[in-house]
């Protein structure tokens, strides 16, 4: 569950950073077209991966319900970070990536 939550948080962070305004508020410069496309693809890919992780742990119906809960919690966290501490979003995504790696090593 922690792995899916971390992946969803990174995914929503990447999707937010793919937008011009959010990227500029975090990095003080506009994103290039390539950065926007890569961040969008990474975001959608990680959301799909978080669903696959949940499917590996739970039945399909329960995994789908959990996915919506995990996505809601991750999206709310990204929204609050962007609203109050936008510059901390990339660092928070890095911490979530480390947490996902630790949980994945325990999961395997």
UniProtKB/TrEMBL annotation:
Please give the InterPro entries that the UniProt record associates with this protein. Answer: DUF3325
UniProt keyword Membrane present: yes
Q: What keywords appear on the UniProt entry? A: Membrane, Transmembrane, Transmembrane helix
Q: What is this protein called?
A: DUF3325 family protein
Q: Which residues form a coiled coil?
A: none
Species name: Shewanella insulae
Q: Where are the transmembrane segments?
A: 6-26, 38-55, 61-82, 89-107
Query: Has the keyword Nucleus been applied to this entry?
Result: no
Any Pfam family the entry gives: DUF3325
């Amino acid at each position: 569950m922690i792995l899916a939550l971390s992946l969803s948080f990174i995914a929503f962070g990447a999707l937010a950073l793919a937008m011009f305004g959010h990227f500029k508020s975090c990095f003080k410069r506009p994103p290039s077209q390539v950065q926007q496309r890569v961040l969008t693809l990474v975001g959608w890919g990680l959301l799909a991966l978080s669903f696959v992780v949940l499917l590996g742990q739970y039945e399909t119906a329960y995994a789908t319900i959990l996915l919506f809960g995990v996505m809601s919690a991750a999206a709310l966290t990204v929204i609050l970070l962007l609203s109050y501490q936008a510059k901390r979003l990339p660092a928070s995504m890095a911490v979530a990536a480390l947490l996902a790696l630790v949980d994945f090593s325990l999961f395997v």
